[in-house]
Amino acid sequence: MVPTPTSPEGSRTIRLPAETVRAIEARLEGSAFDSVDAFVAFVLARLLESPGGPGLTEEDERTLKERLRSLGYID
Question: Is the whole model's pTM more than 0.85, yes or no?
Fold first, then answer.
């Protein structure tokens, strides 16, 4: 089982769209993660481990911006 943060000290609350949370919950079934929080923390930590990685392609960035715009996060 993947460990979850044991203390909220130094933690921060973020809001995720319900659709995203449902998708994560579906992915958690049969995995070592016991919560959405644990999964998100793990994924973000992994992304941050290689800051010099290849990054997003122009198409990925365009798709991401379109998605964020459709969700109302950016204009």
Answer: no
* Amino acid identity for residue 71 in this structure: L
| Cα 17 from Cα 48, distance rounded (Å) | 22
Residue given tokens 């993660």 in the structure block = 33
Rounded to the nearest 10°, the torsion over CA 38, 74, 18, 47 is -20
Q: Where are the domains of the chain?
A: 18-70
Q: Chunk the chain into consecutive blocks of 10 residues (it has 75) and report each block's average pLDDT, rounded to whole numbers.
A: 54 90 92 92 82 74 85 76
CA-wise closest residue to 14 among 51, 43, 56: 43
Torsion of CA 31, 56, 54, 22, to 10 degrees: -10
